[in-house]
Amino acid sequence: MAEARKLRVAAAQIAPDLDGWAGTLDRVLAAIAEAASKGVELVVFPETFVPWYPYFSFVHPPVLTGAEHIRLYENAVVVPGPVTEAVAAAARRHHMVVALGVNERDHGSLYNAQLVFDADGALKLKRRKLTPTFHERMIWGQGDGAGLKVVETAAGRVGALACWEHYNPLARYALMAQHEEIHVAQFPGSLVGPIFADQIEVTIRHHALESGCFVVNATGWLTEEQIARISPEEKLRKGLRGGCMTAIVSPEGAHVVPPLTQGEGLLVADLDMGLIVKRKRMMDSVGHYARPELMSLLLDQRSATPMHVTADPSTSLSGNPADERDDTDRVADGAPDQRIAVLRSAAG
């Protein structure tokens, strides 16, 4: 249960540096310092902000995106690495929780990753977007359930989802069931047009109401010069404007401060954490308003890995002898599979 306390948070709507990861990192560090000067305890940056969101994949066909895709690989973030070390140091120096979206490179694949650093600089969460959206599927691999969790931070219990993951009710419910107090939402911004901004607003306000938590959402921004650089065709540039809805929403579904939909800026708000209990007293969707005996969620939080190594045949797939058991004897709800028992008795 959230304490009746105040928490100052911020959401950054700024443009990346399209020339390289170092320039974008400099902008992240500058925004963290600015937030610290305002007394901010948690700051959120846009989706895959470092080095930049792959806008090129939205306005150009795949056959024309090879060079830009390779450049994204060359500038992507390795975790851990120079980017995470610099952000961790800034979080520790300013005693601030930092939520950062990055293009993560893991050997030959890129992922849409969300990183949450605690106020002591520790990386508390690294998760990957479960299902990239439409054009993004040519850019990123898929995430898994290992990162679909809420973490304890100096700012409270924090969960995170990226962009259209908010259209996945089961993913949202997984975080709600873990009692998130602050939900980090990240979208690209400067995409699709005003309709996208409207959809973002509806989505994050609904999640705040349904989960009874605060939502801190950051969307990115592109300058006109950057838009022209991404696409020389004016017809295509129209798809790279609008779509910004940097906002901070209360558990009652209301904007804590007016949202930022144009230009660069740092949106700052003071959260009354007591509003969480006020909302959940009326409607706790994973508590007194739930019916788990009728409907519940099964979440597999194992990391997806392409290879399992066993030392000998008696060792489990996890590589841990303590886990030795025949998983085929179990069904999803953990009850013995009676069909196997019957087959075994017949064989004996």
Automatic annotation (TrEMBL):
Gene3D superfamilies per the record?
A: Carbon-nitrogen hydrolase (3.60.110.10)
CDD domains with a match to the protein in the record: nitrilases_CHs
Q: Which Pfam families match?
A: CN_hydrolase (PF00795)
Region annotation Disordered: residue ranges?
A: 308-338
MF (Gene Ontology): nitrilase activity
The record's annotation in PANTHER family points to: CN HYDROLASE DOMAIN-CONTAINING PROTEIN, NITRILASE
Task: Name the NCBIfam families on file.
Answer: nitrile_sll0784
This one is known as Nit6803 family nitriliase
Originating species: Lichenifustis flavocetrariae
